[in-house]
Amino acid sequence: MYFTATLTTLHVPHRAAVCGWIVNYCSMAKPRGFEFWRSTLKGARYVVAPMVEQSELAWRLLSRRHGAELCYTPMLHAQVFVRDANYRRENLYNEVHQEDRPLITQFCANDPEVFIQAALLAQDYCDAIDLNLGCPQMIAKRGHYGVFLQDEWDLLEKMIKLADEKLSVPITCKIRVFPEIEKTVKYAKMLEKAGCQLLTVHGRTKDQKGALTGIASWKHIKAVREAVNIPVFANGNIQHLSDVQCCMEETGVQGVMSAEGNLHNPALFEGRSPPVWEMAEEYLEAVGKHPPCSLSYVRAHIFKLWHHTLQIHQDLREELAKAKNVAGIAEVNRQLKQRCQEEMAKDESEWTRTGLPFPHWICQPYVRPPPKDPNAENGQKASETKAVSVKRALEDSDGPNDSLSKNKQKKKARNPHKNFCPELKPKYIKCEQCGNPKGNKCVFNLCRGCCKRKAFKEVADCPGHGLKFKTKALKQSKSDTGGGLTNGNPNSQTVSTAAHDPL
């Protein structure tokens, strides 16, 4: 109030100077670095990772009850967050809860201005804003965000610096490492210099995903921790509480983040491995208390929790997939619990047939099998197996579809003309403003979103996107002037039209 009243009485040059001073003051006033970690984040050591469609409010509250000290929202798309009020409500505004703090909101973005707009809309509902620089999935590659920005240092420096200046909460980053430790350290120091106040380092490269996930490098994380003067969280190789303790001792980080380990055992940070139904029932109760929660989120969590058991009870796996509501999922959970309790009454020797460290009804991590070495199969020569895929083998597959996955073979069966070769796929021309594919018939050479904004601003038409702002304006003009006739002069219609034509 005081600043507003003062600014209105100042001349423009003085007003600009005061505005700059206010920005600098706000930047200095918010907690930074270790002060931010100690005061705002309360020295959090046990952290639940941002997980798309998985770290929603109900799951965060469950994790906090079982040892988690800091949670992240699911990754949110900055551009959608800015333009879609429903998206904001469903993914952040409606998920506010007093027990769900401290909380960091994560965005993916590749445009500084859009990122800042999204962060300004979110900053009052969280304790910090995180920029996702670690997502390695194909959707991130197509959208040009996540780990696929890690070579664009000028852009990232601009985004972080702008966020540090404009936001009232600190800016943090989550990254993946480069193969070279030296380059990873240089990358981290660049982000720190730009204004990043806390860095989460996932010790895997952008190519380590899916069947090639492999082991995260704690050496990279340790090197970053020793090189920067801001708090660092480690991510990768966390399956038990003992892994958390080993990681902190080996790397010297302030906290450890868990994603998949947390999904399979929400009590990981307590050092417990409870029966699956205990966690499932508690989660379903939280879902009931904090609606609305998407059914797909709930189903995905129950699939993860019961992963090992559902390998045995395939019929209930089908029932879970077909469940139409939360009550249906709860019923499948009840049946799984009943079957497991019946198994518990049997001879203990039958429990160990699964090859798991614990009985299958106990919360425990899922370990991905390593990719098969094609050179080790059937004594084949390396030259003969060089082109063998590390993906699962396809049974009885001979012919032109040998190299396609089962999913692609199904698509090929439905549409024999479908093309999976990247070189032969049509190349889309990018929008001149945002980089998304432009409309083929757009008069402005833009995507639909950018075209709509431009056409609205300039009161223009775009037949390619079906936009008729100019046409509607002319119709409105005619109706306002009684069909364009004034004092019986038929030529006045032309004058009226020209006067209202902005183009």
UniProtKB/TrEMBL annotation:
The name this protein carries in UniProt is tRNA-dihydrouridine(16/17) synthase [NAD(P)(+)]-like
What organism, scientifically named, is this protein from? Onychostoma macrolepis
Stretch list, region Disordered: 369-419, 473-503
Q: Where is the composition biased (Polar residues)?
A: 487-497
Instruction: Give any Pfam family that matches.
Output: Dus
GO molecular function per UniProt: tRNA dihydrouridine synthase activity
> What is catalysed by this protein?
5,6-dihydrouridine(17) in tRNA + NADP(+) = uridine(17) in tRNA + NADPH + H(+); 5,6-dihydrouridine(17) in tRNA + NAD(+) = uridine(17) in tRNA + NADH + H(+); 5,6-dihydrouridine(16) in tRNA + NAD(+) = uridine(16) in tRNA + NADH + H(+); 5,6-dihydrouridine(16) in tRNA + NADP(+) = uridine(16) in tRNA + NADPH + H(+)
Functional summary from the UniProt entry:
Catalyzes the synthesis of dihydrouridine, a modified base found in the D-loop of most tRNAs. Specifically modifies U16 and U17 in cytoplasmic tRNAs. Affects the level of some mature tRNA and thereby the total cellular translation.
